UniProtKB/TrEMBL annotation:
<dbReference type="Pfam" id="PF12833">
    <property type="entry name" value="HTH_18"/>
</dbReference>
<feature type="domain" description="HTH araC/xylS-type">
    <location>
        <begin position="210"/>
        <end position="308"/>
    </location>
</feature>
<dbReference type="GO" id="GO:0043565">
    <property type="term" value="F:sequence-specific DNA binding"/>
</dbReference>
<dbReference type="InterPro" id="IPR009057">
    <property type="entry name" value="Homeodomain-like_sf"/>
</dbReference>
<dbReference type="InterPro" id="IPR037923">
    <property type="entry name" value="HTH-like"/>
</dbReference>
<keyword id="KW-0805">Transcription regulation</keyword>
<keyword id="KW-0804">Transcription</keyword>
<keyword id="KW-0238">DNA-binding</keyword>
<dbReference type="GO" id="GO:0003700">
    <property type="term" value="F:DNA-binding transcription factor activity"/>
</dbReference>
<dbReference type="InterPro" id="IPR018060">
    <property type="entry name" value="HTH_AraC"/>
</dbReference>
<protein>
    <submittedName>
        <fullName>Helix-turn-helix domain-containing protein</fullName>
    </submittedName>
</protein>
Length: 310
């Protein structure tokens, strides 16, 4: 009989608070302080004050937008790494692995979550990913905007906060409209910067790279070899390695290992499975192999990582 292990939790908006917020915050902005009168189903917005500085790797079942005003932080989204500076926007979509770390002491900004159906009244016939390319797997998930663009977005952020404060007629609909306008401002900057174009390789190679990333996200637990992905993509392993390295700076094999590491870190941090259980869960032949793999990728053992992060 096959053993059952705890899976990495996929957080919803309603059970995510303890992961991303400190117990105490003095700021009453948005949903910083728990208040049932300020709740809007399928939506939450926060300021950076009271934010947990290190979280993840983890998964959620909602969309997320982050706005950095001052300070800096590093963010991992899937296999990509981004550095937030003042004026950085970032986006994640449901079931995407993400993490934040190296948050500076002077960080200020805002972030918000919304469910996959929250905007259905505003854009009923269009999928979020079709309307806003930064939520698509091949899109650019974090990018800089100008000061003028940032000011426009911050005005909308403050308008959303006023709606939560004032409890006026049509509050929920107004917040949906403001959220749509905010995403639209982000889209305009995205298009202005032509972020759908890739400066490092041809369009066909960029499509190949993104198909590889999508496949790795789906199959990394069962397919560990570059040649397996090359076969699925109909290209040679050497060609695939070259395209991945052009886009990520690492080999395809390293990218696959990085996804396994993210899964291992999540299991160590967010479940009580033993190291041996996690080793078998991730399809390693024995705990020793898993320990060696984890130490090669992080310079510490799984137990040391768990002790530092739980």
């Amino acid at each position: 009989m096959k053993e059952k292990f705890n899976k990495i939790p996929q957080y919803s908006i309603t059970n995510f608070r303890h992961v991303h917020r400190l117990t105490y915050t003095s700021s009453s902005f948005g949903n910083n302080i728990p208040d049932k009168t300020r709740l809007v189903e399928g939506f939450e917005i926060y300021s950076g004050e009271g934010m947990v500085h290190t979280k993840g790797p983890l998964k959620s079942n909602f969309y997320r937008m982050g706005i950095t005003v001052n300070g800096s932080l590093d963010m991992g989204i899937g296999l990509n790494k981004y550095n937030h500076q003042p004026g950085t926007l970032s986006f994640t979509f449901p079931n995407q692995v993400f993490s934040t770390y190296n948050v500076s002491d002077d960080i200020t900004g805002y972030y918000l979550f919304f469910s996959d159906t929250f905007l259905s009244d505003i854009i009923p016939s269009v999928k979020i990913v079709d309307e806003f390319p930064f939520f698509y797997i091949s899109g650019t998930a974090a990018f800089q905007i100008t000061n003028e663009e940032l000011e426009k977005i911050l005005v909308i952020v403050n308008n959303i906060n006023l709606e939560l404060d004032q409890h006026q007629t049509g509050r929920d609909t107004a917040i949906k409209m403001y959220l749509y306008l905010m995403l639209l401002e982000a889209k305009r900057s995205y298009e202005r910067q032509k972020l759908e174009d890739n400066e490092y390789c041809s369009y066909d190679n960029y499509k190949l790279f993104n198909r590889f990333i999508k496949l790795v996200n789906e199959y990394f637990l069962t397919k560990r070899l570059v040649k397996e992905y090359a076969q699925m993509l109909g290209v040679g392993a050497n060609h695939l390695n070259r395209i991945v390295k052009e886009n990520m700076g690492i080999t395809a094999s390293k990218a696959i290992k990085e996804m396994i590491l993210q899964e291992a870190k999540s299991l160590l941090k967010y479940t009580d499975n033993s190291v041996a259980e996690i080793a078998y869960q991730l399809d390693f032949s024995d705990p020793t192999s898993f320990n060696r793999f984890f130490k090669d990728g992080t310079n510490e053992t799984p137990l040391v990582y768990r002790s530092k992060n739980t």
